[in-house]
Amino acid sequence: xxxxxxxxADQLLLIERELRVQGWWDEVSPSPEALSSVEPFSVDTLDxxxxxxxxxxxxxxxxxxxxxxxxxxxxILEMAEMVYADRxxxxxxxxxxxxxxxxxxxxxx
Length: 109
Prior knowledge:
With 109 residues, the chain is mainly alpha-helical. It has one domain (5-24, 45-106). The chain is 57% helix and 0% strand. The protein is built from 5 helices and no strands. The protein has helices at residues 5-21, 32-35, 48-65, 76-83, 92-106. The chain is globular and about 35 Å long. The two termini are 13 Å apart.
């Protein structure tokens, strides 16, 4: 098991918490068609917060639970900074959690 798993699991919980705190957590899943987008961050079918909840968090939890190899790169913070450029204060907690996630992925210890 990768030594970063516990820290990454904590970051995933923080990301989920921030989505919930900001009201960006959906109770109903997007359609299967929306979730099957092949575009980066599903930009053609989902809002960024939906992608975080339904694609990113789901996939990362599977990786951790099944002890699969972690990604070797992550640029989620960069996307979040573009998406939330007009809401810097509102998105600060989420961007901070995503920055730490990116750092954990890049620093393969």
